[in-house]
Amino acid sequence: MAKDYSVKGTTKLQREKYVSDAIALSTLDAPEPSAETMALMRDYVDGKREISEVLELTINRYKTANARPVSL
């Protein structure tokens, strides 16, 4: 059975644990998340944003930052 990571389906304590675990795993061989990403995760913990929105915003920010112009 899949876990429910939605704000409605979790408690604040559960969301804090999910974020803590995710940060621990993601920083094993990489730098700490940016301040912007940490703020988005805080919004998830506080129930202001769904995790899907946090992921989408974070991924899109990095896609935009790393976009290369297409040469014709």
Question: What is the gist of this entry?
Answer:
Helices cover 57% and strands 0% of the residues.
Order of helices and strands: HHH
DSSP helical segment count? 3
- The helix-and-strand class reads mainly alpha
Task: Tell me the distance between the termini.
Answer: 48 Å
Low-confidence runs:
none
Shape: globular
Q: How would you state the average pLDDT, rounded?
A: 90
Q: Percent of residues in beta strands?
A: under 5%
Number of beta strands: 0
Largest sheet: none
Helix fraction by DSSP (H/I, runs of at least 4) = 55-70%
Could you tell me the radius of gyration in angstroms? 14 Å
Could you describe the 3D structure shown?
The structure is a single chain. By secondary structure, the protein is mainly alpha-helical. It has a domain of 31 residues. 57% of the residues lie in helices and 0% in strands. It contains 3 helices and no strands. The mean pLDDT is 90.
Task: Give keywords.
72 residues; mainly alpha; globular; single chain
Fold topology:
Blueprint: H1 12-26, H2 35-45, H3 51-65
Helix pairs in contact: 2-3
